[in-house]
Amino acid sequence: MKITLFNDMSEEGFLSMDRYGRSLGAALRASGLPDLEVTDFTTTFPGGPVPGFLRRFTGRYLKYPWQMQRSKAAVNHVTDHSYGFLTYFLPRRNCVVTCHDLAPLLAETPTLKSRIKKQVWKIALRGALRAPFIITVSESTRRDILKYTGCPADRLHVVYNGLSERFGVLKDSTEYKAWEKAFREKHGITEEKIVLHVGRYSPRKNFEGVLNAFAALTELAARESAAGPGPVRLLQVGGEFTPEHQALIARAGIGGRVTRIAFMPDEELPHVYNLASVFLFPSFYEGFGWPPLEAMACGIPVITSNTSSLPEVAGEAARLVGPEDTAGMARALFEVLTDKQVAADLRKKGLERVKLFSWQRCAEQTAEVYRKTALQQGRSKTKN
After folding, report:
1. DSSP state of 232
2. Topology (CATH level 3) of domain 174-356
3. Domain spanning 2-162+358-383 has what CATH number?
4. Which of 64, 183, 221, 378 could bridge 228 with an S-S bond, Cβ 3.0-4.6 Å?
5. CB of 282 closer than 8 Å to CB of 213
6. What pairs with residue 41 in β-bridges?
7. Which residues of 89-102 are buried (b: 16+ CB within 10 A; e: fewer)?
8. DSSP conformation letters of 78-109
């Protein structure tokens, strides 16, 4: 059975979607499943002196659909629901689409840009819903689709994402110790304990909550200085502080203990996680949420939100707090940073929890959806 994975164009810069497509394809090919022949399809933006917006538009909505019609696969898997419009250019009965979240519909700030984005996204979602079967990366996303689209439940299949094996405990390795020394010197990080947040900027990522919780932790530590955690630094990786964030940092007086790193190569991310004493991830909305699992795999205690998919993914291996509960987040941070037993328990549970998320399992369960799609095609031909 020939399978074609229709992945995002790399120029889009959608790192999570790119990771999903590449990781799933690699896992499917490595699975040893004899009935699958997997091919990745992708294209690039048009070249030449074309403005950025037009290059992206023509690449996504013109060049990609035109080139992809050459696919002769038995199953065409669109790996990112924002490319769901591609189903209009493929035999509908052959399609599978992965829906990662409904963020543009449920969790975007009502700006003019987001309203335009939402309308374009709705077209993609309608295309995704044409597929006979839709994969969702969490039960939370499945519930959202059922609630907001009316899609029949029997067409939705929950298949959890896998987790890269490169995330692991590195603290005892010579390579890591050399990296940590150089990293601390480069960024002027002298504090032994670090509160870490990883993620690109979006209002739903709740950077304000991270900053407010860190400021509240400082106040809490000052009140309970005898049992405090000592000097602590907030490290944010991958995001962007807005003028409002900068003003918040200034008002709270924490500017000297906040470090932001806009970009970190993928190969260094496991090292950054290992640097942390605790990982804070208070998002308002996530379709899956890789960062908490990545932190757990590196042996880092996790504090995350009690909303959307995060309780489902983290299970009992993380401390769950409301994303607007600043005092609750600060107290959780304080306990993890000052109570070695609390930290050790979360660390142990996290290392067990991540064993549930493998790309091999994701590939096997995804292959079952392909087989159902092919079987349905056969039944349709028989009826005709």
Report:
1. E
2. Rossmann fold (3.40.50)
3. 3.40.50.2000
4. 221
5. yes
6. 6
7. bbeeebbbbbbbbb
8. ESSGGGGGGGGGS-GGGEEEEE---HHHHS--
